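Subject: sequence -> structure tokens, single chain

Hey, anyone have a minute? Need the predicted structure for the following. Not urgent.
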Amino acid sequence: AQGRGIATVHQFGGTFPLMSIGRSFFVGVEPTKGWGPFKIYDRKRANEIAVKAVRDFGITRIDDGDRLVGGLSGGERQSLAIARAVYFGARVLILDEPTAALGVKQASHVLRIVNEAKRRGLAVVFITHQVMHAMTVGDHFAVLIRGAIADDFRKGQRSREEITDLMAGGETMADLEAKVDGYMAEHEGHPP
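Reply:
Had a minute. Here:
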């Protein structure tokens, strides 16, 4: 897939907390210096490239490639993984729940990076259960229920409420809330 320009960034970014930013950015394809049997990892070059790639996405807080990935926020880790994919030639970027484990500020940071990737011409497949996040970055939507396409539409063709209801399995959220309220009232004071 990578050879065809397809990259996947998983929920936790696929970074390595105990590695430096430069090392994590190049894991498996480390730049070297020297020749023949005397080649060694080029830490300075790796750090410079990694920091530049991340900063090109507007992450100005990262300025030291020797810094440990574990010291980055969740949003910064996702940004590092996205910048790595773009650097290595991704044309299609599959993001699997990139905002699921993030707070509001970090999630908005990742959404900004996704929009920047789109602006650069990458096709982005954004998998999420967060309706607002999908609506923020999406142009074309497919809602899956148990692995089958329940609906396929373009931006502006469905309201947030319609999408939320669809994701709840086709029931309206009001119906679902009424069922939950009824269950709670029926079982109030009775342990399950």
